[in-house]
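## Example pair
The file below holds two records. Each record gives the amino-acid sequence first, followed by its structure token line.
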Amino acid sequence: MLNLLKNYLVNLLMWLLDEGANTLRGGDPGETISVAAAKARNQGKPWGCVLCRFLAMLLRDDHCTKALNNFGHHSLWGD
């Protein structure tokens, strides 16, 4: 039960901070800024390259690639 609550809180923070930041920049409200940056980087857009490098240093290597590969796989119920 505690693990479910932790996952819920992480998803809530992701929605508020990550998807909120992407929405404020004019992006898809259902997409995180990391996923948007990965897509932009893959298209050769400078902002995506810079943000992905920054997130890799701040969070983990290949953060944007991992975010893009995991996009849509954060449901608590497996749907």
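Second record, same layout:
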Amino acid sequence: MTLENYIAFIKAHHTIIVIVLAGLLCFHFGEKYFDHVAVVDDQKAQLAQQKLQTQVEDNQALAQTNAALQAQVAADRQSLDAAMKSRQVVVVQQQKSDQALPLPDLASRWAQLVNLPPSDFQATPTGIVANVDAAHATVNALDSLQATMATLKDTQTELANDDKVIGGLQAQIVGLNKQIADADDANKKEIAALKADCRKGKMKWFKVGFVTGFVSGLAVGHVK
């Protein structure tokens, strides 16, 4: 084709050419815009992923701390149980020894236990006589012992409850980590699906616009 033929072709189809060029131009800038949006979305997704990862790491660190605390509590409890059993053995042995003591020695042992002078207790052929102060001190010591035993029982219950609480916290953290991981996976898949739909949509509308412009250009050219 000669230059004149090209010029004639352009003049005859200038409307179509303008529409096609306009469509290409719109597609070019539209693609640039969507690419920019995709980059921004990727950056947001990466920041969200970093935030999630930080949260997961914090939860894991907390789980490790709780596990160490639970182990420490368990070790302390075992140590306490061992000490209690050891003391109980000593008490039983002492009780057997006290059971065989002569009355004067038993009176001295009594005075020793309530931290009073031995003279406050007098051994008789049939028993031991304690003065008023010694009697009060003995009753007070028994009252304190009863309170101590109740406190010890409460402490054991509290330790058992602490074990349950720590175990529950660990289970909760494991569940939270799984929930975060599942949410992260779902978000990634959703973002991937949205990007795929966006790309499909861009191509679809470009084709529709291009065909529409082309047909319109033919119609206009035909009318002219």
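Notes on the second record: The radius of gyration is 45 Å. Residues 218-224 have pLDDT under 50 and may be disordered.
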